[in-house]
């Protein structure tokens, strides 16, 4: 019975079970030296395509990010390069609180970093620092202007290096980890084509910072890996924390964040109100039309449609709230209704699920 | 570890005579940390049972202990003494980043505590009065069995204490039970990594995790029901403590008939539905705007062609505005 519950877990088709299973954890000193000598990433700005993060490193970073809310926290990650992916085996926190105005927070933590990495060698943690992570509590995973500058410098002097961003608030309200891994392009390099990235809802106060620098870096695909022992332990852990799944309520723990999201939406709508009169209908183009200039103009018109973006933001807020509500209603039915008596509340799970489906 | 061990007394007191009074809450992060440490050393040293040693961080208030994080420890070349310098440096570093966590114990990998562990315990006891010991039991067969009872985590916690025997005092360990607690972010991260870390329609994954949790609740309840029916049929032994807690549980249902709670609940429900309303309102406004834009394009064209020709060839299939 419990194994079925565990199988229900492994829904996703992206379970990267490393094969041979735990080999990724082995640190091969010679291979590492070799690849650091060759440095294939200096020849191709798009060299790294994926970022593999170990389960322990990820959980540590999420917990650290959450513990620091509302401040931005940062830390370092240790790992190695394997082919075109940067593998992150462990992470550790730095005693610095980031604010948007601090460019070189890393300098203050320098001594801490050096000491930690030296000490790591004593306990058989031989990997080098291959990246840094920091949190954006509530405003999404992307690199701000300061972050881009910091990452430029990192990639110049400490390559291979990757920047990881985590949003602990969104993690809780969405019920899944909000994380992104990025690498900047070298200066004076224009990417061949600005690929349309997945839309993220960004608060109004940050949206300029996001837009200006969006083309100076690209995202890596994030994959999680775990060892065979981790797998078994996670399966066993489910037996213990299923209770927390039911008892915790996203609506309550994330109330401040939800309110700030609504505020932000209100501001965006106010802005949309002024710009909506200038929207134009998009001209339908024949599919095989290679006139890329026309396509780009159409895309620009779409992006300028503030109202459409607000619709997406509104839908996201509503969907997440509905999810939280589904959990609450479930608990209400399970624990508050008496058998046989008609449910006194007018609430039923079907209604809420229907609403959730109709929004998304 | 030689024949001289035969006259050594066992290091763990049998749990029937003494029980630990501690309530230990173990988080998933230390569990995964220890597993990673073990896997890593196994691979690097190519041994199936390398020597693993580390420190536990957490909080202890009275008899309640919470184990939240861990870090690795080094031993000096004699394999028995802890590297004190490294320990102090690492502990201070963790203090800087997580000021609320204290050193509360240590962990290692073994089937059960032995005299060697007592030696380590003595070293840690100089730093704090009662360092806990957490053991990971190495075993190649965690074979998934469908039996709910058998699936327990291969970790055991021990509390050190002094036993007086033959007018000599010696340190021994008592096994202590533990529960698994998580913070919300931790739970989501653990959940997500267990599923392999990809997305999927959020509604689908949310519903399935809720369903899995409810199913577990259902299974546990069925087990309890089975137990009670067996007692009634006279097959099972009555355990009064369990029965008392069962009746307390049933008496506390329904959990919320209180009027104040109902009001809060309904208000929250209304708030959430308001956001849904807001979202559909914005969506309809946007669709309307689009429609108006397209209509403008259409009518502009019609007017361009001149009043006469256009009106006769009135466009078909255009929506009427009422």
Compact description:
Chain A has 360 residues and is an alpha/beta fold. Chain A contains 14 helices and seven strands. The longest helix of chain A has 31 residues, at 306-336.
Task: Please give a structural write-up.
The complex is a heterodimer of chains A (360) and B (322). The model of chain A is unreliable at 10-19 (pLDDT under 50). Helices cover 49% and strands 17% of the residues of chain A. In chain A, α11 (255-275) packs antiparallel against α13 (306-336). In chain A, α6 links the parallel β4 and β5. Chain A is globular. Chain A is an alpha/beta fold and 360 residues long. The model of chain B is unreliable at 1-7, 140-150 and 308-314 (pLDDT under 50). In chain B, strands 1-8-7-6-5-3-4-2-9 form a 9-stranded mixed sheet. At the A-B interface, α1, α3, β3, α5 and α7 of A face α1, α2, α4, α5 and α7 of B.
Write the layout of secondary structure elements.
The complex is a heterodimer of chains A (360) and B (322).
Chain A: H1 2-9, H2 29-38, E1 50-54, H3 55-68, E2 72-82, E3 85-98, H4 105-108, H5 110-122, E4 128-135, H6 145-157, E5 162-167, H7 168-174, E6 178-184, H8 207-213, E7 217-225, H9 228-247, H10 250-253, H11 255-275, H12 292-304, H13 306-336, H14 349-359
Parallel strand pairs in A: 1-3, 1-7, 4-5
Antiparallel strand pairs in A: 2-3, 2-4, 5-6, 6-7
Helix pairs in contact in A: 11-13, 13-14
Chain B: E1 12-13, E2 23-26, H1 28-45, E3 53-61, E4 64-72, H2 84-97, E5 102-109, H3 115-125, E6 132-136, E7 155-165, E8 168-176, E9 178-180, H4 184-194, H5 202-232, H6 240-251, H7 259-304, H8 307-312
Parallel strand pairs in B: 1-8, 2-4, 2-9, 5-6
Antiparallel strand pairs in B: 3-4, 3-5, 6-7, 7-8
